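Regression test attached.
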Amino acid sequence: MNSFQWKVLYIALMAVLLLPISYISRPSTPPRKDGESNPGGLLAQKRAQYNLAQANLGEIDPASETMKLALLGMRGVAANILWTKANHYKKTEDWPKMMATLEQITNLQPNFISVWQFQGWNVSYNVSVEFDNYLHRYFWVKRGIRFLIEGTRYNRDEPRLLWDVAWFFGQKIGRADEHKQFREEFRKDEDFHDFIRDHVIDFDNKSIGPFNKPDNWRVSHQWYLIAQETVDSGRANMRGRSLQSMIEEKPHERNKGKSPVLFHSGPGMALINYSAALADEGIFDEFSESAWAEAGAVWQSFGNREIRTSRDFYIRLNEEEALEAEVIELTQQLGTLQPGLMEEIKLKKQQSLSEEMILALETPVDQVTEEQAQLHAEAARLLMVSPADIVEQIKDDATRSKARWLAETINDKMTHATFVKQYRNIVNFDYWRTRCTVEQSEDSNQAKKHLYQADNDHREGRLLQAQRNYEIAWDAWANIYDKYPQLQEDVGTEDVVSAVKRYDNLLGQLDQEFPADFKLKRVVDFHERGRYRPWEETGHTHSSDHSSSSSEGPVLTPSLPVAPDEGTEQGKQEAPEDTGNKSSADTAIPATDG
Amino acid sequence: MFRRVKLARAEEPRSQPISENFMVVEELPLPFSEWLVQSSRYGLAAVAVFLIGSLFFSYLVTAFRYGASEGFYLTAKVMFRGVGEFFQISPRRIIAMAGLAFKEAVRRRVLVSFAVFIAILLFAGWFLDTESTQPGQLYISFVLTSTNFLVLALVLLLSVFSLPTDIKQKTIYTVVTKPVRAWEVVLGRITGFCAIGTLILLAMGVFSYWFVVRGLAHNHVVNTDDIRPSELIEGGVEGATLKNRNHFHSFPVDTNGQGKTDMRMGHWHEVGRQGEGENASYQVGRARDGLAARIPEYGKLRFLDRTGALAEPISVGYEWTYRGYFEGGTLAAAIWRLEGITPENFPDGLEIFWSISVFRTHKGDIEKGVSGSWTLAHPENDNQSPPIPFESKEFSLDSLYIEREFELATGETIDIFKEYADDKGRMDFILRCDDRGQYFGVAQADFYQHVGDRNFAWNFAKGYLSIWIQMTLVIGMGVMFSTFLSAPVALLATLGSVVMGFFTSHVKELALSVFNPENSTIDGGGPIESLIRLVNQMNVSVDLDLGFATAVIQALDAVIMAFMWAVAVMVPDFSRFDMVGYVAEGFNVPADVWCQQLVVGLAYSFVVTCLGYFLLRTREIAA
């Protein structure tokens, strides 16, 4: 073939190749008047199926599109260079240039979620702290939030970004060292309110906190709801919209991203934090009570929400008690299939124990040696009667098959209950539930209000008034601890103990004895383990060793026990993966009356 | 006593951008004369080596073609004729040749680049950060950078295609058969392309200036309902403007109805009251100082440690070591010694500007800055002024006006020049941090005496001058390479030289690291080693362990890097021609800087022109 023929052949081949390309890339057409619509070629269909078209992801920015086209496929290289530049500008503290570079990066990769997440965090958390003036810090915290919200415009149904916006509004403004100043700034920041108003529905009603001004925690709550709505409506998965739509349940990808239990705890925690913040700021009226009531209701509905576990079944955090009751009932049923069998097995197991183990079991707890403690635990494990033990011992086939069914059901329920317990621990569910209930009580309101006033009076030299307020507060606290004894074990009670020390100091100033019948003795003892006992029977005198309590620094308002919330490391842990190799025979039955 | 001139109101503005108006100067420029003396020796030697090397290269080429003796004869002839012809250059013929080059450039539609530039300006708003805290900086660096790259790309294409096309199409013979010398061919082309480049650059400069000025011009409206009695000025009022361009200003107005707004986004406005009482309205003037060219007088910085002895500053652990830190609440201090502090230069008093970085080791009072103080001190005796306290403001320019005469607590009136400056006009400015456990961080350029202001347009033009110098260099190199290479190869060679020119310091550093791996500052080895690491996804800090192959690879890398180093030493350092920082940050480009650049640019242009001539002659011989 000569050169001309080759050229003709090439052109013909190109034309042939164009046919399938044009066939698979036919555009879809919207429904016509006669109701007929054309789904388009394969590419158009796939785009629709996975919501990959740019218009489905979010707003289309002409600047972004131009930049992507102008780079002729060198987008990755350009993005890399820009990242390096952004890092350099951060290092050399050239903030305007850093922000300009970030904007360029997001123009190049508007749908790359991690860029928004990472850089939003960078600006709000890392850049802001480089500034000494708290107003400047607030400005940069806000800039990071605006950056994230900008990201949600390009990725409108992306729960990861929406959730982060909520987190920043809540945690960065409401939990920073400067949270008092930041919250105050946020309230006054009408400019920012105007900006948020464009993104949050009914901002002026639902985001309003004390002083009839928007509150950062309430705004945070609104954003959590938006994030939740994208998931509940099925438009996205909390693991990330783009990721999930493409990978379609790949097991190894499924547990990426935020755990469902943390994801859904957001709205409740935002309201709890909001209510706690009110108390910190000295607001103790119906306003604060209704805030706790609302938080409690939202937390309750969080407990009723179906949550997918890492083992693919669904649980509800509120169902732990019910599940445990069911297990007990089923175990009783199992026991009645062949009366006396359980005791028989237990006896056999007891007989199989070694002498050392029996000795370890019989030794009083406070006298056991370390070795015995181990033996004790081992013996206790051996003595447990599992459903499988019972099934094994039943001879009659019909009864045995019923027993097997019961054993499996018990195991199933127990696994559920275990997961519920673990997931509850992740978000500290029980603690917050109790706290919401306690905080709504009159006692709690009295306790905190009077303590707050007492501290103020003390600080301002109204000593007798302070004493009166302290005493009212102690009565109220004592009532609370009587009703909810589990609260006194909490680390947060230390705030109450430090308040007791301030009270002690006040009594010293007034030259009075510390009351021997002090109502919170138990609480103080529990936390101080005898190191501090101002009510000694011999009659306490205020010596110099107590003066240290007066120099403790700023007087704190004690609050009810503070437990690690979802912001702590512990709270952030992913749901524990179960080992997966538990057979039904390994599961022990809890003790029953039967 | 001391009067503090506040550019901003006492109350910090809320919820809006913060000004960051200071410039990072890693190394202060040497005075031009000093630089010239230092560089001339090295420069002249470099020029000599370069010319001799080129001649030797020419000889090699001719010797290869015609034999050793014939080659020598031809090269010597060309060299002597070249020198002779140099003195016979006719400006008229150069202008004629330049005219031809100019026409050719126009025929090649170079003006399209201007259209591209206008298009870039039209759509620039899409890409510029609208929320920037320093819009002026952003606009200026954007126009200067885009002009720079556009013009360099344009002249690169223009200069490398001209001669090869002429030679290829044999149209060069219509020129060389005329009484035109090779000097004139080369110089004419360079001049012609420079002329059209200059014209385009001028047009771009005018449009850029218009773009920046118009882009930053704005006004504010004052809502008279927000006006309230001032807490700072007795009988005055204060208020805030409405928001425009992502910011607003707060301002006080005195009893005469005059006031200034605070500094926001790098500028402020004048405010004037019209009417009295309830009918009063407030007019906000145009933005000021957004486009400035301040002339700073920097001092020499030294540090004292906590015992008051001279010492190196403390590192607080930042990766960027630009600023040195010193401890608060101790005798530690930063001291700048300024010169030229005479009553003749500053008849009324001194205006000083500073910017400090704060490092807190404890929270302290969140709502307050860290306390610091300035003390004026005589460089030779113990005379010191009472400390002038201030509260730190990070990432923004703080200023103080010190009146020439003030009264001490004893009632005695003092003239600062007599009391704290020596006969040579030197004065020490001592900065202390007064809060224990907190640190101040400063660099030499963080403190300066504001000597005056230059015209912004002129400063902007200086920014364009640096682009012009770069353009001339690229044209020179393009023409030079095109005298002996085909157009695409010349394009690559010039492009390579320019790219290398932007990274010379990095290449030199890399080469030194490869030559001397024990003291390397850049990890990862030379090109081959890097490639192996890249392919194997190997961390740069891990030793390459391929046995004997490692030694071979490193030896090869050393050879490659030796070549790269040689090239890096020869090509001009383009990164030095950067005046964007000065112009964008609102500082006057010092004459020392642009004169140095001009000299370097002209020297390089001379060398490449000579080289171009000889290469063209060599080519003529070869042909």
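Expected vs. actual: identical. The first helix of chain A runs from residue 3 to 24.
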